[in-house]
């Protein structure tokens, strides 16, 4: 029987006593800031403008003197200085891969041994050498697929690069290849399991799945329980971004997501830029000691809160209690970011449209996107127009949505381009 409870990727580092951890953090802080200042022109400019020299940054508290660079501004920062906006410490040809996120924004992957650092997350979630893992994250343009893929290989797992969609084939592969691990969104896991059930694939009858690492979506506790009780799958969640890789992961205790030891993560009041204490909601701001992409105070736009309470697993890092939302109207639907600006892009491409509003709901365990369209007085409703709007929306957001035509007066809050009606129990 494999022990999927206790396990570390780097036990000495993960369980460092507090004083040792503080010293370790000061070292990575000093190195990260110095390296970024010397090699990433945009960080150097930002620090010069704030009047902060690398030699003056000696403790985490000193970071607050450096302004936050916001993810929401990345598109314009990059546009002014393609492709990485002066934030990378190496030219494009030095990168291992370059990814494209909707926007577009460009994410570099350096040639260091583990650029995204997901190994600890997998081991903490119960993945072990010898697991056969179906990776259902997207493998093209987005870094999601490959960043998990590489970490799994490094910890000794076998990966099936399944990507998104093809539910029936996913279920068949899960049975035929004796898959024991899953990576992807929680909703897609449930979709595949339900399809499998229809095909007669159940625990004890072709379904051997034991562990799952889910990300990019909320994991309601009710859904986690269903995975455990009905399918016997231990599901743990992780949090990360395309720019910064792993930013948090649950251990077996599942009481919040451990912040990776090798990065510096602050929670910052979005209004004042000041760090907040345990239990207070703030924006996740990351300082990343990465050789090729050394971010200094990068604001992800995600809101969270942290705790320093000791975790019974023995890891001594702080934990993000949960992700509570976004600081802007940006939202995640089926694991993909959707920006108000994308809604405007759709509007521009369909001349008959006066305005659009996306309404996000949850049906069963899945996100659903409805596109509410109001038309110009010269245009009229038709199936053809509905199909065209939905196709343009799919091109721009990579998501399917149902179009409904509405009168302006029926819109809930006209100014908002995205309305999120999901509840997470
Ligand atoms: Zn723990």
Task: Summarize this entry quickly.
This protein is α/β, with parallel strands linked by helices and 425 residues long. The protein is 28% helix and 26% strand.
Radius of gyration, Cα only, in angstroms?
A: 22 Å
Major beta sheet summary: 12 strands, mixed
What global shape is seen?
Answer: globular
Tally of discrete structural domains: 2
**CATH-defined fold name of the largest domain:** Rossmann fold
What is the end-to-end distance?
Answer: 33 Å
Number of helices: 11
CATH class of the largest domain: Alpha Beta
- In terms of quaternary structure, what is this? single chain
Structural class call reads alpha/beta
According to DSSP, the number of beta strands is: 22
CATH superfamily assignment of the largest domain? ANL, N-terminal domain
Query: Low-confidence stretches at least 5 residues in length (pLDDT < 50)?
Result: none
Work out the strand percent. Answer: 25-35%
The distinct ligands, each listed once, are: zinc ion
Write down the overall mean pLDDT: 94
Q: Work out the helicity level.
A: 25-40%
CATH architecture group name of the largest domain: 3-Layer(aba) Sandwich
Textual characterization of the structure:
The two termini are 33 Å apart. Helix 7 crosses helix 8 and helix 10 crosses helix 11 (383-397). Strands 1, 4, 5, 6, 9, 10, 11, 12, 13, 14, 15 and 16 form a twelve-stranded mixed beta sheet that branches. Strands 21-20-19-22 form a four-stranded mixed beta sheet. With 425 residues, the chain is α/β, with parallel strands linked by helices. The mean pLDDT is 94. Helices cover 28% and strands 26% of the residues. It is built from eleven helices and 22 strands. It folds into two domains: 1-327, 3-Layer(aba) Sandwich (Rossmann fold); 333-420, ANL, C-terminal domain (GMP Synthetase, Chain A, domain 3, 2-Layer Sandwich). The chain binds zinc ion (ZN). Zinc ion binds next to loops.
